Amino acid sequence: MTLALLAQSILNGLAAGWVYVLVAVGLTLVFGIMNIVQFAHGEIYMLGAYCSYFLIKSCGFSFWAALPLSALLIGLLGIVLERFFFRPFRGRFEPSIIVAVGLMVLLQTTAVVGFGTSTKTMPGIISGVLTVSGVTLSWDRLLAILVGIILVAALFLLIQKTKIGQAMVAVSQDPYAAALQGIDVNRISAVAMATGCALAAIAGSLMGSIFSTSPFMGTSAITKGIAVIILGGLGSIPGAVAGGLILGLIDGLVPPLLSPTMAGIVGFGVIIIVLLLRPRGLFGHE
Amino acid sequence: MANLEIRGLTKHFGGLAAVNNLNMNVNHGEIVGLIGPNGAGKTTVFNLITGFVRPTKGQIMFEQSDITGQTTHSIADKGIVRTFQLTAFLQDMTVLQNVLVSCHLHPKAGVWEAILNIPSYRKKEQYACDHAMDILQFLGLDSVKDELAQNLPHGHQRLLGIAMALSANPKLLLLDEPLAGMNAAEVRESLTFINKIRSAGTTVLLVEHNMRAVMELCDRIVVINFGCKIAEGLPDEIKRNKDVIEAYLGAGEHVTC
Amino acid sequence: MSKGARLVKPASYTALILLLFLVPLFVKGAYPLHVLIMVGISIILTSSLRTIATTGQISLAHAGFMAIGAYTSALLVMDLGLSFWAAFLIGGIAAALIALLVGYPFVRVRRVYFAMLTLFMGAVIRLTIMEWRDLTHGSSGLLNIPPPNSIVIPGLLNIAFDSKVPYYYFILVLVLISLLFLYRIDSSRVGRTMLAVQQGDSVAESVGINVTNFKVLAWCVGCFFAGIAGSFYAHYIRVLTPDSFGVMQAIYIVVYMVVGGRRRFSGAILGAFIVTLIPEVFRGLKEYQPFVFVGTLFIVIFFLPEGLVSLPEKVRERIRKRRGVSLGQS
Known about the structure:
The complex is a heterotrimer of chains A (286), B (257) and C (330).
Chain A: H1 3-34, H2 41-57, H3 63-86, H4 93-115, E1 129-132, E2 135-138, H5 139-161, H6 163-173, H7 175-180, H8 185-210, H9 217-232, H10 237-257, H11 260-277
Chain B: E1 4-13, E2 16-26, E3 31-35, H1 42-49, E4 57-62, E5 65-66, H2 72-78, E6 80-82, H3 95-102, H4 111-116, H5 119-138, H6 154-167, E7 172-176, H7 184-199, E8 203-207, H8 211-217, E9 220-225, E10 228-233, H9 235-240, H10 242-249
Chain C: H1 3-26, H2 30-54, H3 62-80, H4 84-108, H5 111-131, H6 133-136, E1 151-153, E2 157-159, H7 164-187, H8 189-199, H9 201-206, H10 211-237, H11 247-260, H12 265-281, H13 289-303, H14 311-329
Antiparallel strand pairs in C: 1-2
Helix pairs in contact in C: 2-7, 2-10, 2-11, 2-12, 3-4, 3-5, 3-10, 4-10, 7-8, 8-10, 11-12
């Protein structure tokens, strides 16, 4: 294995990792505040991609205009879903899981029926590649990474520095105590869901334009997202970043170093080992 | 002989010592009371003895064998069973089912035995059923045996907790605030039960806040505060002990052991 | 109970079983028999999933373990020339062993993590099958999987698996044996202990129940039967692709269990039966058919949370309440 190939693999892994982070960060936010495993998060990601696609293709928006608009629309969808599907079962583990997987099937089928099963391509953000000392990275992937870093940093600041962010922390630690302090738990849940869905929509739009958009792209997103937050710890944003980058590196390095077959197993094995040592994940608390 | 020996037992949570260098014994056939102000570490001691929590330092010996750091279910197998402060029971099951489940160790039955439903298993089930009914009758719960556990009034729920612990045939029974929330009549009844349990051969260690009951019931009392033992002796001695009185009135600052 | 009354239940079950054995005499078409065979597979999958759920764990990996059984059995017969009857059992054992391998770390985590871990594991199984092309032919799949070896007793029997009928009888026997086993677990001390593990693991531990061991037991037993169902499936459908064993399929099995109702043993059977029939009844709807599926799920979850099997008692309760009210007024 040459140094160039190694460096390329690491870069590919990190690039993939940042997308995992974007998906996982939204998921962990929803989980941390609302205490539900939002299995339909992958479908939200997929709908975000389709939303951008239609904004670009049918309404003539540019990609960079469609992106925030899609985030907004999907965020609103998230508020509706939280209100009617998740709130009635808040705090109850089993029904919440059932509702989430039910939504997963519902949303995916809606996409299949509405948009067809063929993949769609979105006009690329920017074409061309950047090559530095034998290592290549396409510009669109680099931009995706930058957007990811900015968003995660912004989210982190939002949580640490704003009142609403602190309210979210309070709700995630103890909803009853938070309510006693006068925090409107319903409103916070809605905000968390909206933010999580907006992040997923952005991630989906970015991935949809770099690769392609299909009704089935959500399933791989949720699988990766779940792996990341198990590894990183439920409800932890630094955990989502660490977990996403680690799993991204595994996906980048294992296929060339070992074999493509092993990528899934190695990732799985790493998660199992971490769980044996730290049952709450790398950064998990509670 | 059901002898419990605790040597140098210490548990740190973060920087705080919830239990600090505790030394105490419980001898066969005794009823020992463990008292102290709120937050003194009494439930932590129970958690340490029964393996729910691992000690930071120290040793716990039961019947001359070391049980420090073992799992809860194997400690139960050795004969130490506890009740819970916030009464724990199986909500969606009936009183009888709750007690039947607790007969798990007595008599033991293998998984294949149960699946194949062989005569030896059926005999064991019958025995467990009879045993369960005996315990329910002993505690006066047989009339509600088919009620869902969650529908019982509070006092009965606490008795159910005791019934479940008894079903495991403990040599040493740890009662965590068995009298909490009971009225005078219920307290009377419970004290009678606890005495009967001791007469039947079970050693008892209990945590309780009801001072009058503790003084009346216990052979010996151990007092802890901030995780340290501050006094030990007969009820009369403890009643007059200055450190104990101060601890309860809050005048005592953090005591070092 | 009078002697007569005590005999009603076993008698009706016996009658039902006899009826099931007589079905191929009345049902001649290949398609209806196919549907019944698929229902049989679903019943095994759903009931074994329910066993895992008895300890409070919701597994989203069941389709993955079905895949393990399916591919193990198919490959043992095709590549190693084993007899189906050995390969089939080994398929189930392989699933159970892999379950055991991950069992201990899996059951120690919180229930939420368990559900997520199993979803992830199911995806990893499918991905590994897809990538391990040398062994499994990846997405192209395994084709022309041989049917079960004929059952031959010289002079007496020669059953060849060349039509749907022998498969029907085979799955019928398999379902009956599996249900008997799972029912025995559920209704015995083992099942009672598993319920205790679900409802109060602290108090269970304190009376001497090894909670971890029981969770692993339920998990491995459940996965074993998923593997067995998979083995049967492989040699019945005779084509295997990784896409048949994805996240969606795993979710469907959970839906069968929830719609039927998981508190009672019969709930899983009812759920598998009814929900497997939905795609068949609503065939015309084609790609809209998952909507009916999800619609049923949401109706149940919002209005009948304990599943369809609880319908009779809910109706009885309502009638009792109405009667109580009108009596009070008279």
